[in-house]
UniProtKB/TrEMBL annotation:
This is Cupin domain-containing protein. InterPro entries: Cupin_2, OryJ/VirC-like, RmlC-like_jellyroll, RmlC_Cupin_sf. Residues 111-168 form the Cupin type-2 domain. It holds the Pfam family Cupin_2. CDD domains: cupin_BLL6423-like. SUPFAM superfamilies: RmlC-like cupins (SSF51182).
Length: 176
């Protein structure tokens, strides 16, 4: 996956400041086919960067604070990969916590989770199912979008091919 970042030169003109692979990308060894990428992030109140400096090395949580953002691209293998006898859920949890701090701690054993964010999700490639806490399942395909409003949910890849999704997470205040 290629990431192109723009910024400004010393004269204030727009320029490409970075063009290459997503530097913060991980292919999980505990679950082949699971790939997590963090192309960009912003913190609350942060001004637009003129230099296009990469903020991702400084990100300590994939869960943005209210007003912050995270741009995450996930490739999710079929659910059947987790039923394989060689799958080690403890090792996967360890990799999740290292790769996705802030969100990994919110994951329930069945993959359900709730985040205090508004998420814009786009299915880039494949078919996946959005499952909500009442058991309702909504099938999604390439090009479909989901607006996730801080609801408890999980992603189910019931097919036999990996699915790639892009998410923009926007930190929000939780309504009590």
């Amino acid at each position: 996956m290629r990431r192109v970042v723009t910024g400004h030169d010393e004269h204030g003109r727009s320029v490409v400041v970075s063009d290459g692979p997503v530097p913060r990308s991980r292919e999980f060894t505990s679950l082949p086919g699971w790939v997590s990428r963090l192309p960009w992030a912003t913190e609350p109140g942060e001004p637009v960067g003129r230099t296009g400096e990469d903020p991702t090395p400084k990100v300590t949580s994939l869960l943005p604070a209210p007003g912050g953002t995270r741009f995450v691209v996930l490739t999710i293998p079929p659910d059947s990969a987790m039923a394989d006898p060689s799958f080690d859920p403890v090792a996967f949890d360890r990799e999740q916590r290292a790769d996705s701090p802030g969100i990994a701690e919110l994951m329930e054993p069945d993959g359900m989770h709730t985040t205090p964010t508004v998420d814009y999700g786009i299915v880039l490639h494949g078919d996946i199912v959005l499952e909500l806490d009442d058991g309702h399942r909504t099938p999604l395909s390439t090009g479909d979008i989901v607006i996730q409003n801080g609801t408890r949910h999980s992603w189910r890849n019931l097919g036999d091919q990996p699915v790639t999704m892009a998410f923009v997470l926007i930190g929000a205040e939780r309504e009590d």
